Amino acid sequence: MENVAIASIFSGSVWQIIGSSSTFGLFIIFILVIMSLVSWVIIFGKWRQFRTVERENRKFMQVFNRSRTLSEAVGQAKSSSNAPVAHIFLSGFKELGELQELKNESAGLQESVRSLDNEDLEIIEMSMEKSLTEQMGLLESRVIFLASAGNSAPFLGLLGTVVGIMNSFWSIGERGSASLAIVAPGIAEALLATIIGLGTAIPAVIAFNWANNKLKYISDFSHNFILEFLARTKKERR
């Protein structure tokens, strides 16, 4: 039965169904097709983006772990524009430099004041957390559309199904007959709307869950980096 259905789709009968569909049914199908296309564009775009982010994060971390001081990693951070941890590092390093300058001015010394208290570290951490939030916001953009498509597409397909069945019953009432030739177009329209709705929703839901897992991994990775940065800062500024 499944092979027959697949064969009928590729034999061109699906275009016959679309051609005989009602205006409202075509409108539902059009919306679902557009949602599906947009979802796939987002899926491929996010796949490339996350792959680049993970590669750039690892590359920067290798330089950061090899550097003897924080300042040695600045050059790599500036060249790693696609790495969230690089932006977070620059934010923390900038805040660290500003705090150091304030301490030097308040102490009235020519030499650098190296010690930092817990309040200073909290300020640096807040600055880095702010940068992390901004970076995650950029990575999360357009992901919500996948959730919207996954949640709404089945209901739009169901709406098209109801309309198709309603048209079948209307045809029966008009012609006073329940023959297959009368009800088949409406039933076919209903089933087509269901198929397209599910075909739109299933990839969107899978991709949304995958994207959320990737975002969680990047967020955890970045939080661990913030802790490592603060630990290195305490060691260098003791």
How would you describe this protein?
With 238 residues, this protein is mainly α. The chain has one domain. It contains eight helices and no strands. α5 runs parallel beside α8, α6 runs antiparallel to α8 and α7 packs antiparallel against α8 (180-236). 29% of the residues are buried.
Radius of gyration: 29 Å
Strand count: 0
* Distance between the ends: 75 Å
pLDDT averaged residue by residue = 82
Q: Report the sheet-strand fraction.
A: under 5%
What is the total number of structural domains? Answer: 1
Helix percent reads over 70%
**Main sheet attributes: strand count, strand direction, barrel closure:** none
Give a quick summary of the entry.
This protein has helices at residues 2-10, 13-19, 23-66, 74-79, 84-107, 118-140, 143-175, 180-236. The protein is an all-alpha fold.
Quick tags:
238 residues, mainly alpha, 8 helices
Topology:
Layout (H helix, E strand, L loop, with lengths): L1 H9 L2 H7 L3 H44 L7 H6 L4 H24 L10 H23 L2 H33 L4 H57 L2
Helix pairs in contact: 3-7, 3-8, 5-6, 5-8, 6-8, 7-8
